[in-house]
Amino acid sequence: MSDDGKLPRILVVDDSRMVRASIVKHIRGRFEVREEPDGEAGWEALLVDPGIELVLTDIGMPRLDGYGLLERIRASKVSRVRELPVVIISGDEDESARERALALGANGFIPKGSGSVELLATLSSLVRLAKTQSELERSRAALAQQSAVDPDSGLVTPAYLEHRGTQAVAEARRRQSDIGAMVIGVDQYDELVGRYGDHVAQLVLRKLGKLITGRIRAEDTLSQHATAQFALLSPGIDRVSSCAFALRVRSSVEKLVMAYRDERIRVTLSIGVANAVADGRQAVSELLALAAERAAHASAAGGNRVLGAAGEVDAAEIERELARQPGLDAVLRQVRAGARDEVARQLPGVIAALMPLLELIESQYQVGLPLARLQAIQDKGGDDHDDGEATRTSV
Questions:
Q1: Is the separation of the CB atoms in 182 and 237 below 8 Å?
Q2: Can you count the helices (H) and strands (E) in the chain?
Q3: Average pLDDT over residues 108-115
Q4: Distance, CA of 316 to CA of 113 (rounded, Å)
Q5: Are 272 and 294 in contact (CB under 8 A)?
């Protein structure tokens, strides 16, 4: 009996009314029983009755036999159904029938005519095991919500990403700086699972997670956004730097070769990029939603590409924009050489390059630097400018 006083509910599927009545007689008082005459009716019952905790089914039945019902249960996309304990009860005591049932995922096999003691012991132990596994799963989910790190991926949890992102957005507003968001999706992930299995696909995701983690800064935050997606938040990074980094990640993964047995696995990425300044979005959820939408469009367009505010990101154009940004060493040489007018024309870009350093100075010493005014001068300078060579190098 459960903690709330209700008896565990068992679905008994058998085309013989007499067999069903015999089973009910054996387990009355210990379990609540729902009866169905064949596998098709049993399957329909599972879909509409969430209270069922175990399935006890015959093999030979009209419409859908016990093997077919078991296959449907184990292939269900509804975890509640897929993880139900299933016991086969059959008059066929042939060893091959038992082996086939167990291979399809049955939790037990009981010959018809077995006594009530064996039947009750098998059903009770499986129901208890199912309850224990369910409680462990709930506890694990609760711990994952409280922890900053997901135990499966090794990355921060989506909840922590949201929390960290909220802090980063608030800091970006205070400093008048930008924040970049990316959603990085693995192309044709379902095909990868279908060919190599879920275990190998998960190993591929972990490999990609480590690859991306090794290329980001300490202040960046990476999380597994969905089954085959990562989400990245990068404070202080503007549109050009975000797109340049996304292109580098896409290119690195495109060249990556992973070995599995005698096969080589290659994957590609579809990446969506969003920035608070370029896209006019401030909330973390809005940035990530926009980045996810662009990643989906990139995948639908064939994959292995990066989409930003202006559509597909062109690597050559990003290189040209980066090249237009002034190098500080060259600017200082021009100042020392007396070429003040030449430097004056480059000042918006110089301000952009120095902004991360100026923000750090202001945050540490609160000397009253006019960051908002400098940001306005930078924005008025015309071309998009990023946060400078130091920021791009740290990424």
A1: no
A2: 18, 13
A3: 79
A4: 76
A5: yes
Residue tagged 């559509």 (tokens): 311
- On average, the pLDDT of the chain sits at 82
Helix (H) or strand (E) holding 116: helix 116-146
Q: What is the DSSP string of 300-336?
A: HTTSSEEEETTEEPPHHHHHHHHHHSPPHHHHHHHHH
**Per-residue pLDDT at 385:** 35
Summarised one tens digit per residue, pLDDT across range 45-95 is: 998 898 899 999 999 998 899 999 999 999 988 888 888 999 998 876 678
CATH of domain 9-145: 3.40.50.2300
User: pLDDT digits over 135-190, tens only?
Assistant: 766 666 655 555 566 666 678 777 778 888 788 878 777 777 788 999 999 999 99
β-bridge partners, 9:
32, 52
Distance CA 330, CA 157 (A): 43
DSSP state of 156: B
pLDDT of residue 388: 35
pLDDT of residue 117 exceeding 70, the answer is yes
Residue-wise pLDDT for 320-353, tens only, equals 776 666 566 667 766 666 667 767 777 877 887 7
The gap from C-alpha 328 to its chain's centroid, in whole angstroms, comes to 40
As given in the structure block, the two tokens for residue 243 are 């797109």
Domain ranges in the chain are 9-145, 158-322, 325-394
3-state secondary structure of 188: coil
Name 272's Cβ contacts closer than 8 Å, sequence gap at least 6.
182, 183, 185, 290, 291, 292, 293, 294, 295, 296, 297, 298, 306, 307, 308
Exposed e or buried b for every residue in 75-112, given b needs 16+ CB within 10 A?
ebeeeebeebbbbbbbeeeeeebbebbeebebbbbeee
- Annotate 179-203 with b (16+ C-beta within 10 A) or e (fewer): bbbbbbbbbebeebbeebeeebbee
Rounded to whole angstroms, how far apart are CA atoms 327 and 119? 80
As a CATH number, domain 158-322 is: 3.30.70.270
Alpha-carbon 293 to chain mean position: 15
Structure tokens at 285: 């959820």
